[in-house]
Each structure stands twice: as structure tokens, then as C-alpha cells.
Amino acid sequence: MAYKNKTTNMNTKEVIHFSKTIAAGATDTLNARIKNNGTLEEIRVRFYEGANKELAIRPVIDTRGNLQEIFSYATSGDSSIKGNDDYFVLPVNMPVKLDDVAKVMVVSSSLIDLDFVVDFVIDYKAGLERAVR
User: Fold this and answer.
1) What is the spatial distance between Cα 13 and Cα 95, in angstroms, rounded to a whole number?
2) ∠ CA 48-54-56, rounded to 5°
3) Which end of the chain is more exposed for a tag (fewer CB within 10 A), N or C?
4) How far apart are CA 31 and CA 86, in angstroms?
5) Reduced to 3 states, what is the DSSP secondary structure of residue 22?
6) Which residues share a beta bridge with 119?
């Protein structure tokens, strides 16, 4: 399930919240449309106890069918993150555009159903004019 925090105007931040229970051994992709030009500031990922690194979460931005990896690990080339009873706050600082799609791709290798939470924090205040470093 994805839902967006309500914002009063375009001079605010928005948290796009994804959460779901993934069935044992299943895969899924959750989607939410970006509502204006802005900057993806951070990704927050919550793994609950029992995940035992058997749940791989891969957040991406889909720009007209072109998937932009939000993070990857240089040593393995892996673009997903795993954990067990962990909460990660990962700085991103990536430009996003109106009608891009925030996606969370999930793969479970577990024998039990697992829950997770992923938040995309987007700053619309300066749009694409904000310096991205």
C-alpha cells in the first residue's frame, strides 16, 4: 500500500509512504506518482525482526520506463538493501520530475510472510532549481 502525506502547498516536503506484508517467497512492486518537480532527499527503510536479510528492497525512480537506481553498493553492484530489525535513513539528494514514479521493488526469499516500510522524502520547495550535489 502506498499513500502520500497531505501537503498544503508546493512549498513543503512530502513523505511517500509504502508498507506491505509480502507473502513468503513472493515478489511485488509498489508505485506512487511524483506530483511535481523536486528533490528526493532521503529514503527510510524499516525491516522488522524476523526478516533475517531474506527480504530485498530496491527503491527506484521510473522516468518514462527508464529505471533510475537510487542507491547501489559498489562492492557487489547490488541496488537493493536487506536487514533484520533495522531502520535505515539513507541520504539521496536526487532530482525528480512531475509524473516520475517512485517504486519499491521487493523480493522475499523467506519461508514466512514479512512486513516492511519504505518512505521517500521529497522536497518540492525549490523544485529542480535546488543545487544537487
Assistant:
1) 14
2) 85
3) C
4) 23
5) strand
6) 17, 44
DSSP E strands in the chain: the ranges are 2-4, 13-22, 27-33, 38-47, 55-63, 66-69, 86-96, 101-108, 114-123
With a cut of 90, say whether residue 104 has pLDDT above it.
yes
Residue whose grid cell is 502525506 = 5
The identity of residue 19, as a single letter, is: S
- Pairing verdict, β 55-63 and 66-69: antiparallel
Radius of gyration of the chain, Cα coordinates, nearest whole angstrom: 15
Query: Which residues neighbour 11 within 8 Å (Cβ) at sequence distance 6 or greater?
Result: 124, 125
Cα 94 to chain centroid distance, Å, stands at: 12
What integer pLDDT is reported at residue 78 of this predicted model? 77
Q: What is the pLDDT of residue 6?
A: 47
Place of cell 522536497: 123
Match 527503491 to its residue by C-alpha cell.
Answer: 59
